[in-house]
Automatic annotation (TrEMBL), chain A:
Belongs to the UPF0210 family. This is UPF0210 protein H8711_04970. NCBIfam families: PRK05313.1. PANTHER family: UPF0210 PROTEIN MJ1665, UPF0210 PROTEIN SPR0218. It holds the Pfam family DUF711.
UniProtKB/TrEMBL annotation, chain B:
Belongs to the UPF0237 family. This is UPF0237 protein H8711_04965. Residues 4-78 form the ACT domain. CDD domains: ACT_1ZPV (cd04872). It holds the Pfam family ACT_6. InterPro entries: ACT-like_dom_sf, ACT_dom, UPF0237/GcvR_regulator, UPF0237_ACT. It comes from Ligaoa zhengdingensis. NCBIfam families: PRK00194.1 (NF001220).
Length: 451, 89
């Protein structure tokens, strides 16, 4: 018989410490849906998504009930639409509407893949898709968009960076009446992973199989509770506690992933070893850092604490799963994390510190509300900085900023649900306009020459 | 296939009897039971074989939840694999 304490520990983790499976994401390739007629292409896409994902939501709910573990999101990622658009031409927004219809038909929370990969340059379809992103995000609710503008291998496409600065502002402007939600569904990546199950950056990479199940786990509350229980131990012990906890969390993700893949008859892809927070009190990555001994997240020492956390999560998780992928690491989305919201409200956490933190954790400047009158070139420059960190350190970095149209520093946006809420954060007022206007490509760093 | 039923709450007469009678009604064979009462708190863990149950697994969960509400207890019915995968290598 299983140990009584183990059973009670699992139940406590789920019930009191917000342990959950954050998402089961089905990746679906749309390469076989390409048609030179955009209407035919859309019909094929709708048919394939609704056929493949027909049972996704029900299966997720069945597994959640049977194992007693909440599965918060069921999502779909698809082949970057720019690739499909390259064949069909036409108005890209048609694809966004088709994805929206398909996501509603199968009942998923989000569908990602309104994306373009332009890290080295624009191919057919890419520019048109990027131009259409703000409108596509304004006329749909469930569609998420991402653009990869740089990589360690190829450098940074600064023309794309310049363009994305404008598109982020435009996405916010077109949804100004809805808390600028458009920009919250748009991520700009450097080194984007092809198997990421998390939104808004999920897309189904061209190297992926026809259909695949990827799982993202979550459990900041569990890690924090374990650290609190341990009291004043040294940091070696802190790392060990995090590793042990991450192992258990990930085993659960592996179980749910393999079970979902068996029931849906779709190959199992990866577990994303993630600590994904929610705005719920107690489900916060910032509170883990504070439990390690920082007065507030953002204090000096935050980067070191986050580096330890991120590394221990990976070390614990990697042993627990047969295939690890996606973003894998601790997330620091400001508006989605109760501790980050509190720290930014009181001024302890600023964008400069967040930028430093992104050098040692899994993603980047995520869900940060910035002043509504921020010039596009400043957004572009933030994207460039973040991409440079990713490029040089051979890691994924991303930017998801929400310009709060009509709002200034100190005011707040509230997206509701998992996307949370947060205050407008101050940015550096000096202009990078001339740097951004240059365009061109930042060459790939020496680190790219590994062969 | 086995499930783990956990019952936590204030101790009172008939908890074990009522939980096991639901198991019996669904043809779920009880393999093992551990229970303890500390001060007033009752905690029971029951391992049941659900491979030959006469109803849907969800139906057992619903019945247990109802019983939990009636008696003011927290009752969870979960597939044993969740515990095996988390705590055993």
């Amino acid at each position: 018989m299983i140990n009584t304490n183990d059973i009670l520990e699992t139940i406590r983790m789920i019930q009191d410490e917000n342990l959950d499976i954050r998402t089961i994401t089905m990746g679906i390739s749309l390469l076989d849906c390409c048609d030179s007629d955009i209407h035919k292409s859309c019909d094929k896409i709708y048919e394939k998504i609704t056929r493949r994902a027909q049972k996704l939501v029900q299966t997720g709910e069945d597994i959640a009930a049977e194992y007693g573990i909440p599965i918060i999101n069921k999502r779909i990622s698809v082949t970057p639409i720019a690739m499909v658009l390259a064949v069909s031409g036409g108005d890209p927004v048609e694809y966004a509407k088709t994805l929206e219809r398909a996501s509603r038909a199968v009942g998923v929370n989000f569908i990602g893949g309104y994306s373009a990969l332009v890290h080295k340059g624009f191919a057919a379809g890419d520019r048109a898709l990027i131009e259409s992103i703000p409108e596509a995000l304004a006329v749909t609710d469930h569609v998420c968009s991402s653009v990869n503008i740089g990589s360690t291998k190829s450098g940074i496409n600064m023309d794309a960076v310049r363009l994305m600065g404008r598109q982020v502002v435009e996405a916010a402007r077109l949804t100004a009446d809805r808390q600028c939600i458009g920009a919250a569904k748009l991520v700009v990546f450097c080194n984007a992973p092809e198997d990421n199950p998390f939104m808004a950056g999920a897309f189904h990479g061209p190297g992926e199989p026809d259909c695949v199940i990827n799982v993202g786990v979550s459990g900041p509350g569990v890690v924090r509770a374990a650290l609190k229980k341990a009291g004043d131990c040294d940091l070696t012990e802190v790392a060990n506690i995090i590793k042990r906890t991450a192992f258990k969390i990930t085993r659960m993700g592996q179980l749910v992933g393999t079970e979902a893949s068996r029931r849906l008859d779709v190959p199992f892809g990866i577990v994303d070893l993630s600590l994904a927070p929610t705005p719920e009190i107690g489900d916060s990555v910032a509170y883990i850092l504070e439990a390690m001994g920082l007065e507030k997240c953002g204090a000096h020492g935050t980067t070191a604490a986050l580096a330890l956390l991120n590394d221990a999560v990976k070390k614990g998780g990697v042993m627990a799963s047969s295939h690890v992928g996606g973003l894998s690491g601790a997330f620091i989305p400001v508006t989605e994390d109760a501790g980050m919201i509190a720290a930014s409200r009181c001024g302890a956490l600023r964008i400069e510190k967040l930028e430093a933190m992104t050098a040692v954790c899994s993603v980047g400047l995520d869900m940060i509300v910035v002043p509504g009158d921020t010039p596009p070139e400043v957004i572009s420059a933030i994207i460039a900085d973040e991409a440079a960190i990713g490029m040089v350190n051979s890691k994924t970095t991303a930017v998801r900023l929400i310009p709060a149209i009509g709002k200034k520093e100190g005011e707040e946006l509230d997206f509701g649900g998992l996307l949370g809420f947060g205050p407008v954060m101050a940015l550096n007022p000096n202009s990078p306009a001339r740097f951004i206007a240059r365009g061109g490509r930042i060459p790939a760093p020496l680190q790219s020459l590994k062969n | 296939m086995r499930a783990v039923i956990t019952v936590v709450g204030k101790d009172r007469v008939g908890i074990l009897a009522k939980v096991s009678s639901i198991c019996a009604a669904c043809n779920a064979n009880v393999n093992d039971v551990t229970q303890s009462v500390m001060q007033d708190m009752f905690a029971m863990i029951m391992m049941v074989d659900i491979s030959r149950i006469s109803c849907d697994f969800k139906e057992i969960q619903v019945k247990m939840n109802q019983l939990g509400e009636e008696m003011g207890l927290q009752i969870h019915v979960m597939h044993e694999d969740i515990f095996n995968s988390m705590h055993r290598i």
